[in-house]
Amino acid sequence: MKAFVRVMKALSDPNRVKIVKMLHQRPLCVCELQAALGIAQPTVSNHLKTLEDAGLVQSAKAGQWVNYSLAQDAGPYAVALLGHLKDWLEDDPEVARLLEGLDGIRRESICAARPGR
Hints:
Blueprint: H1 2-10, H2 14-25, H3 30-37, H4 41-53, E1 57-62, E2 65-70, H5 76-87, H6 93-101, H7 107-113
Antiparallel strand pairs: 1-2
């Protein structure tokens, strides 16, 4: 029961659901998620940690970035919910806007625009 509750709690926050929806499109780094959601970097990182702890998301270092993607070896509850979430909320205006804007969000341009880079 603990694994089920952990997955459900992880998906109980709207921003975490949005992160999962975006990760269905492609792997993303924290700066891309931050740009898409318009929330602070520490908040994005906390959301990702919660999703990772629930077995929904995995991370992999790639050069200077850490890429986040949907977990490939997720448990049965995570697999079921990730499968359903792929098709759910497609008609939600906020989710649709996020997914449409994802093509214009690229880490190279975000990092190039930051001072000190």
